[in-house]
Amino acid sequence: MTDRYASFVQSTAGRALVKRLGLPDPPRLRRHRPGDPLLPGPALLGAATGSRYAQPVAARLTAAGVELIEWAGGAPAQNPPSAGPHGDNPQRYAALLFDATGISDSTDLRQLWDFFHPQARSVLPSGRVIVLGKVARECPTPREATAQRALEGLVRSIGKEFGRGITAQLVQVAHAQGDPSIGLESTLRFLLSGRSAYVSGQVIRVAGGKASIPADWARPLDGQVVLVTGAARGIGAALAKVLARDGAQVVALDIPAAGDALAAVANEIGGTAVQLDLTAPDAPTRLAEHLASRHGRVDVVVHNAGITRDKTLGRMDADRWDQVIDVNLSSQERINDVLLERELIPVGGRIISVSSIAGIAGNRGQTNYATSKAGVIGLVDSLAPALRDRGISVNAVAPGFIETRLTARIPLVVREAGRRMNSLAQGGLPVDVAETIGWLAWPSSGAISGNVVRVCGQSLLGA
Fold first, then answer.
1. Taking phi first (over 0 means left), then psi (-120 to 50 degrees means alpha), and beta for anything else, what does residue 238 get?
2. Catalytic residue of the set 53, 93, 198, 369
3. pLDDT at residue 71 greater than cutoff 60
4. Which residue intervals of the chain bear CATH 3.40.50.720?
5. H-helix or E-strand containing 272?
């Protein structure tokens, strides 16, 4: 589906009209292309007093080819070659990174202003802002917890202020055994790259857990068996293609009625197609037997299959309610139960579910859908700690307005509101959801669990 307004804005006449009338100005987003560097320019790295992750992060990002300039409290530690004759610094940055884990009191928050205020206009279009913090509830004192919680307001405001396709995220490093810098590298690679084009204003928790660095970051899923439900069209098809591009052996599943489209997707990516109605009583057993006989395991399970049956609650019949709950939520529980009971998901495995911002904010005429998608978030919250000892991570993504054949059916006025009511002033693409799920599927992301990551351009709904 084409966003004609966004295309018009990119024209000379469109830009003039937008500027004169103050209309929404959707920026052109930087999306991932194989072979792209993580960043198209240098990054400025700063740290609050007493922070502990700046140096490990610097070492990993430098090894990844990122040009880092270290901040020395008020100015970069070194002036880049473009610095003026009087020491002024016209340098522009593709990313600003700040380690705020040392902030332990509200008075320490001034260091955020010291770092970000001089650089607020120095970030390139489609740039990235990342702040490292701690999980507030794990802090040893109320003052430290207060100061760390304040970081969320900073990051979400930056995401709305900076504009021009610039995104902002808070990455919280949780207390856990293991080396959190491994999980940090996976997360930073995703957030700095074009893969995260439509992700902004998010809080992501990283802990020390079962994570491993891939031999080739261009193919981080080499050797992994990945199940994708609802793979015939839309987000599911884009997801199957992204995972296959990243090296996975994809098992693409959808209902028999979508068999032709499913076969086309599987053939294109060199995967296998499974036609199965997930609501059938024997579906979990049949799926488990297929995975066991063909692959012996499934490293990543992506619950993408979902339906809508929209009506206001007072006009909704029981069948509409039951169908949506069964497909969107109950089928995920049944499949998880069988795969886990038969130990087909190994240590280091990942379960990733697709929720929705409707499950966070609700939506008129979608009580059944919103209920099911909120339930998916509950599934993540409950399963993540239960599976921690088995080394299996559980996460969800919550898409906002994504340009698909389903959103193309929405009435024009509502569709335009959905596109513009976010910090990026545009709808996302199926590939944006796929890239986010792909990151969570990486073995190097195994230390990330219990997260619900919104892929919504920092939507105003549920903000």
1. alpha
2. 369
3. yes
4. 31-206, 225-455
5. strand 272-275
pLDDT in tens, 239-251: 999 999 999 999 9
Q: Is 53 a catalytic residue?
A: no
pLDDT in tens, 315-350: 999 999 999 999 999 999 999 999 999 999 999 999
Considering the four listed CATH numbers 3.40.50.720, 1.20.1080.10, 3.10.180.10, 3.40.1110.10, the one that applies to the domain covering 225-455 is 3.40.50.720
The pLDDT of residue 90: 66
CATH number attached to the domain at 31-206: 3.40.50.720
Q: Dump the DSSP string for 193-261.
A: SGGGTT--SEEEEE-S-S----S-TTSTTTT-EEEEES-SSHHHHHHHHHHHHTT-EEEEEE-GGGHHH
* Residue 16, pLDDT above cutoff 90: no
Task: Please give the pLDDT value at position 329.
Answer: 98
Six-digit token string for 132 = 């490292």
CA 72/CA 53 separation, integer angstroms = 16
